[in-house]
Amino acid sequence: MGKRSNFERIERDFYPTPPEAVAPLLSHLPLRARFFEPCAGDGALVRHLEAAGHQCVRASDIAPQAEWIEQRCVLARSPLPLGIAPLFITNPPWSRDILHRIILKLSKFAPTWLLFDADWMHTRQSADFLLLLRKVVSVGRVRWIPGTKMTGKDNCCWYLFDARRHGPVEFVGRCQ
After folding, report:
1. CB 114 within 8 A of CB 158
2. Cα–Cα distance between 110 and 127 in angstroms, integer?
3. Beta strand pairing status for 34-37 and 55-61?
4. Helix (H/G/I), strand (E/B), else coil: 24
5. Which long-range contacts (CB under 8 A, 24 or more apart) does 91-96 make?
6. pLDDT tens for residues 117-154?
7. Cα four-point dihedral sign 83, 18, 95, 59
8. How far is CA 133 from the centre of its chain?
9. Residue 139: φ, ψ to 5°
10. Residue 97 burial (10 A CB sphere; 0-12, 13-18, 19+)
11. End-to-end CA distance of the chain
12. DSSP per residue over 102-157, as a string?
């Protein structure tokens, strides 16, 4: 699943978000945040955020894994009626061609929190997107496959993108 792994990737990068990956984000969200999850998969991230007191106003996925998740491609024309949710929060596919399009599209509409590999911000391919970046919250390695003993081989971060704001990027290191 990572660049140094011999495991086959799961189709559409369907790796449900474990609660340990969500914990570092929680203190950076507004109290009782309302959010839209556009790559919801089976709804794991939604469940973790709602358990922490936040409200999902809409969840969608190109291939929903739960009945309550709307079937919709995140890259469709309009992601949502303006004003429905002040935040996007998702664990998107890490395939760069899709990830980069998601960053550009969603950050135009609302602040967008995305969970993906930490190495991305140190690559040349990230340069065009760094002007949209507002905050990086370090997560570390994540155990993506439930029941396994090993974590993934890549460190992860929550990245906050917002095309409507400017200023320096805040970096928050690991707390534990």
Report:
1. yes
2. 21
3. parallel
4. helix
5. 91/15, 91/17, 91/21, 91/39, 91/41, 91/45, 91/115, 91/116, 92/13, 92/39, 92/116, 93/12, 93/13, 93/39, 94/13, 95/13, 96/125
6. 999 999 999 999 999 999 999 998 887 666 766 655 68
7. negative
8. 13
9. -115, -40
10. exposed
11. 25
12. HHHHHHHHS-EEEEEEGGGGGSGGGGGGGGGEEEEEEEEE---STT-SPPPSSEEE
Residues 6 or more apart whose CB falls under 8 angstroms from that of 71 comprise 60, 61, 62, 63, 64
Q: Which residues contact 15 (CB under 8 A, 6 or more apart)?
A: 1, 91, 144, 145
pTM: 0.87
What burial letters (b/e) apply to 112-125, b meaning 16+ CB within 10 Å? Answer: bbbbbbbebbeeee
Task: Please enumerate in sequence order all residues whose Cβ is within 8 A of that of 127, keeping only pairs 6 or more positions apart, or say none.
Answer: none
With cut-offs at 50, 70 and 90, classify the pLDDT of residue 90: very high
Which residues have a Cβ under 8 Å from the Cβ of 84 and sit 6 or more positions away?
Answer: 36, 57, 58
| Integer Cα distance of 174 and 176 in angstroms | 6
The arithmetic mean of pLDDT across residues 41-69, rounded, is: 96
Structure-block tokens of residue 136? 């990086």
